[in-house]
Specification:
The protein is α/β, with parallel strands linked by helices. The protein has 18 helices and 8 strands. The longest helix is centred in the first third of the chain and has 44 residues. It is elongated and about 95 Å long.
Length: 498
């Protein structure tokens, strides 16, 4: 080979290597992952998404704290507060998923994000349009819902921009736009599809639950709602009958369930039978038609709320207080603060202060928080609505009321205030005059099952010089208010106190 041919061959090989370095990869090779982050606009978009995620996460932290402790009355949610926590959680996760799969844009992700944004926007419209939902969620819930919808829309913008950037880089580095993905890219696309699909499922369930709440919100309260604590929240109070010749008004305090579910029916029978002239019942904060109060909520705060509602409704004493279960805690504190107006107490299988920690404690608070967190999904309520025939009455004050976020938040607030409530009960024990008549009606099966409970019921009856313990046989704590035998006995006991 001549020297000239050798030089030409070497030059040809150098030219080929230079061309391969310019294109970086052979056109005939398999698909290669090209990063769009080489473009400044894509990098800035990613930084701004991180900024939005930090804002959303900070607001989520505030929402979690507000679930346990009300930081400011202006941030207080008169509903459960869990719906807006759900919205802020969706905003955090959708931005986190956007960053996690940032470099692998997908049309399927954009379609799912559009659906998520649409459902959240529908939630926003219903919350603003329906008075009861607008009251429950307040400005914080409305703003959080809109923010989550905007973050879902932002994902569409970022994903489409990254897609454009990726195509630009492929055109520059490869000379063409790839139509195939690497195995790693397909794996990320699959994960992102699963992630955004789960978020969409959550949004669909939340939307259906909001529709259900819209229906429940049309149920009119039998009484009136009164502003409490400087117009921070409202409680529901209703009165039936009329007081004659200065007779006592019976005040009903609900227990673990709403007062309408257990106490009102048989007391209404007592009114019809002429055993009493008038009775008033109210929903503690978070129960029935009452708003949730700022958290934590002690028995003293509940008693003050009832006092304020009675003043607003112009319901004067004397009072005879009838209560069941944990309601006895609040009834005793109320009576100790209205000693001159309290003519008697009927405590129906009520909770003793020494056993307060069994129902209201920190462990229960955590479980209630977790249950409340998922309550906006409403899976159980939707199932029972479709297949179980549950009505709006069941969900507002009846047998399914405990499944709602409002009830859960109320129990959470009461659990967080348990320590203060215990001290208030000790003070009530010392303050309440021993001359106040008191009847303790214990459930027979309950006292047979628990020796401690039997001893505590006896101790409650000894709070008064005129106290007595009545054990109603063949009934338990849950059905003492519903069995015909026990209801007739309770009506008789109530009449003795009038």
């Amino acid at each position: 080979m001549s020297d000239v041919e050798s030089v030409q061959d070497a030059s040809s090989r150098r030219s080929t290597r230079a061309t391969e370095r310019t294109r970086l990869i052979n056109a005939e090779d398999d698909a290669v992952q090209i990063s769009p982050l080489n473009l400044l606009v894509v990098r800035n978009l990613r930084r701004f998404t991180v900024f939005l995620l930090l804002i959303s996460f900070a607001w989520w932290i505030v929402q979690v704290i507000m679930t346990f402790i009300t930081l400011s009355p202006k941030l207080h949610s008169r509903g459960s507060g869990f719906t807006q926590l759900s919205f802020s959680t969706i905003a955090v996760f959708i931005l986190a998923f956007d960053l996690l799969y940032f470099s692998t844009p997908s049309k399927a992700d954009r379609i799912l994000a559009l659906a998520i944004s649409a459902f959240l926007l529908a939630d926003f419209i219903f919350i603003v349009a329906v008075s009861r939902l607008r009251t429950d969620e307040g400005w914080t819930g409305i703003a959080t819902c809109l923010w989550a919808a905007l973050m879902a829309a932002w994902v569409i913008v970022t994903d489409r921009t990254v897609q454009w950037g990726k195509e630009e880089e492929e055109e520059r580095l490869l000379g063409y736009v790839q139509t195939r993905r690497t195995l790693g890219e397909w794996f990320k696309v699959l994960l992102s599809l699963i992630s955004f699909s789960l978020l969409l499922l959550i949004c669909v369930l939340t939307f259906l639950t909001i529709i259900l709440r819209c229906n429940d919100g049309t149920l009119a309260a039998p009484g009136q709602r009164y502003w409490i604590d400087g117009n921070i929240y409202q409680v529901h109070l209703a009165c039936v009958g009329s007081s004659r010749n200065g007779s006592a008004t019976v005040i009903l305090e609900g227990g673990e369930n709403s007062v309408e579910y257990g106490l009102v029916p048989w007391v209404n029978e007592a009114l019809a039978e002429g055993k009493i002239d008038r009775f008033c019942y109210w929903d503690r904060p978070g129960y029935g038609w009452s708003d949730n109060a700022p958290s934590p909520q002690s028995a003293g705060a509940v008693a003050d709320a009832l006092s304020e509602a009675l003043i607003e409704a112009e319901i004067d004493g004397p009072y005879v207080i009838a209560t069941h279960g944990v309601g006895g805690v609040y009834a005793r504190v109320f009576a100790s603060r209205h000693t001159s107006q309290t003519n008697g107490l009927l405590l129906i299988d009520t909770l003793h202060e020494d056993l307060l920690g069994e129902q209201l404690n920190a462990n229960n608070a955590i479980l209630l928080f977790l249950r409340g967190w998922i309550s906006p999904l409403g899976v159980d309520r939707l199932f029972l609505w479709i297949f179980g025939g549950r009505t709006r009455e069941d969900r507002t004050w009846g047998r399914s009321a405990w499944r709602g976020g409002r009830w859960t938040k109320a129990r959470l607030s009461e659990s967080l205030g348990a320590a203060l409530t215990h001290n208030e009960l000790l003070a009530a024990r010392a303050i309440l005059p021993r001359s106040v008549p008191m009847i303790v009606a214990a459930a027979g099966k309950h006292v047979q099952r628990s020796k401690v409970w039997a001893e505590k019921q006896l101790d409650l009856s000894r709070l008064s010089d005129h106290g007595k313990l009545e054990t109603i046989d063949h009934v338990d704590h849950e059905d003492i208010l519903t069995r015909r035998q026990s209801r007739d006995k309770l009506k008789s006991l109530l009449a003795q106190l009038i």
